[in-house]
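> forwarded from #structure-qc
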């Protein structure tokens, strides 16, 4: 697995503005350097996952912020975008699976406001910029940053690009500028600001990339591995080796080490652990979950929904 040169990607978006740089070393944000973008599946069976790049939630946070800055030049929106994943636990949305939140996958967002409000470092930096915490802690009031499917937003666009590069491999880094240069802000029929496109070819490309991601994220193999890692994490909690709050403090590598050590002496757990790490697709038979999040989109093309 290669490391995506995130700086190469960031440079394609826009130069990091001076005001943003001082926020990038905040402790609450740098924690995300140790949380993978693909929900812990980087550690799963290589027979099922073959990611081209290793990407972190920290990388995604910066690129989402820069996408927002490129099209809005709005400090509040940009900072809201930077901190939108601040409450991401170890293994990301796998923990939503642990709470049986398969559809919205939003239970892991519940700590966002608390984390931001309790960071003295952040509050001091905001004061320097004449901003207050209430202006950045709720991304849902900024439709450019976050919006419900099938609408587009900075978070969703960045996710499509990153997953297209690393997971589905339906996008090459050289194709990214054409996408970014094709975006414009429109007002949709719900009277919201929304990122849209001005070329049908680019809309088709984005939809095709996203459809492949949706296909991958709803396979029985992906559901099985996500659910299994959720059960592994729950097992560690039930054995009092970690508590749920540790998921917002520890590195993924630290939790993995705890799991690996337990697997050496707990036969029941070892079966789960080895299955997660080595299972082959043909060994998973008809696994399913009641409902699962779908990744459908319907972007704007020159202000109108492309898919009728």
């Amino acid at each position: 697995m290669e490391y995506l040169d995130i700086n190469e990607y960031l440079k394609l978006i826009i130069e990091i503005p001076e005001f943003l740089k001082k926020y990038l070393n905040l402790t609450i944000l740098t924690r995300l350097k140790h949380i993978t973008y693909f929900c812990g599946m980087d550690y799963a069976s290589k027979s099922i996952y073959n990611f081209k790049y290793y990407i972190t939630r920290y990388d995604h946070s910066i690129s989402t912020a820069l996408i927002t800055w490129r099209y809005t030049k709005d400090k509040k929106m940009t900072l809201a975008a930077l901190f939108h994943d601040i409450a991401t636990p170890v293994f990301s949305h796998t923990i939503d699976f642990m709470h049986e939140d398969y559809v919205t996958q939003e239970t892991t967002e519940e700590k966002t406001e608390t984390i931001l409000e309790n960071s003295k470092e952040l509050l001091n930096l905001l004061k320097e910029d004449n901003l207050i915490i209430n202006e950045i802690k709720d991304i849902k009031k900024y439709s450019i940053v976050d919006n419900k499917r099938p609408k587009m937003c900075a978070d969703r666009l960045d996710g499509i690009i990153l997953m297209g590069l690393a997971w589905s491999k339906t996008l090459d880094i050289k194709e990214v500028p054409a996408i970014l240069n094709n975006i414009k802000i429109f007002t949709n029929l719900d009277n919201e600001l929304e990122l849209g496109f001005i070329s049908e070819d680019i809309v088709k490309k984005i939809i095709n990339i996203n459809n492949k991601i949706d296909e991958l994220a709803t396979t029985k193999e992906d559901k099985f591995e996500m659910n299994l890692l959720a059960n592994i994490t729950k097992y560690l909690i039930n054995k009092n080796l970690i508590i749920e709050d540790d998921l917002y403090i520890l590195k993924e590598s630290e939790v993995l080490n705890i799991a690996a050590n337990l697997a050496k002496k707990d036969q029941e757990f070892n079966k789960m652990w080895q299955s997660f790490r080595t299972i082959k697709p043909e060994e998973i038979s008809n696994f399913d979950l009641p409902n699962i999040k779908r990744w459908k989109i319907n972007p704007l093309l020159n202000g109108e929904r492309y898919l009728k």
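QC bot note: The mean pLDDT is 93. The longest strand covers residues 183-187.
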